[in-house]
Amino acid sequence: MINIKDTKWIPCVDAVLSAAFAAAVFLFFWLKYPYHLIFQEQYQIFLCTGEFARQLISLPGGLSAYIGRFLTQFFFIPACGAAIMAALMLAVQVLSASLMRSRSLLAYSLSFVPAAILMVFYLDEDVLLPLAVSEILLLLAARIVVSVEGDILRRLLFVALVPLLFFALGNISVVFVPIVLADEILHRKMNVTKWLILTLIAVAVAVACPFVAQYFCSYQFKWLMFGLHYYRPRFATPYYLWLSAAVVPLILVASAKIKMSEKIEKYVGWCAVAAIAVGAVYAVNKKAMPSREMAMRYSKLMYNQQWNDIIALANEQPPTNPMSAICLNLALIKTGNANSLFYYQQHGTQCLLPRFTKDYVAPLVTSQVFYHLGMINDAMRSTFEAQECIPDYQKSAFCYKMLAECNMIAGNYLVAKRYVSLLKNTICYRKWAEEVGQLLWHKGASPSAEKLLTDKAIESHPVYGHLRKCLTRKENDFFYSESETDSMLGNVYLTNTSNTMAYDYMISWLLLGKNVPRFLEVFDVNHDLYGKPLPRLYQEVIALAWAKDHRDFSGIPYPIEKDIQMSFANFMRAYTGKAPESYMRANFGNTYWYYFAFANN
Amino acid sequence: MKTIIYFAVCCLLMTSCGMEAVKNARKDGNFPMIYPDYVDVTVPAQIAPLNFAMSDDAASLVDVVATGEKGGNIHVQGEYADFDEAEWKELLQQNVGSKIWFEVSAKTDGGWTTFRKFSISVSGDEIDYGIAYRKLAPGYEVFSKMGIYERNLSNFDETAVLENTQFDGCLNCHEFNKCNPEGLTMHIRGDHSATLIRTQGGIEALNTKTESTLGFCVYPYWHPSGKYIVYSTNTTRQMFHSMPEKIIEVFDLESDLQVYDIQKKELVLSNSVMLPDSWETYPTFSPDGKTLYFCTVQKTEIPEGLKDVRYSLCKASFNPETGKVGEDVDTLVSARSTGKSITFPKPSYDGRFIMYIMCDYGCFSIWHHEADLYLLDLKTGESRALSSANSADTDSYHNWSTNSRWFVFSSRRDDGQFTRLYVSHIGADGKESKPFMLPQKNPKKYYAELMLSYNVPEFVTAPINLDRMEAVEKINSAERTALKVRR
Question: Fewest beta carbons within 10 Å, which of A181, A286, A342, A590?
Answer without folding.
Answer: A286
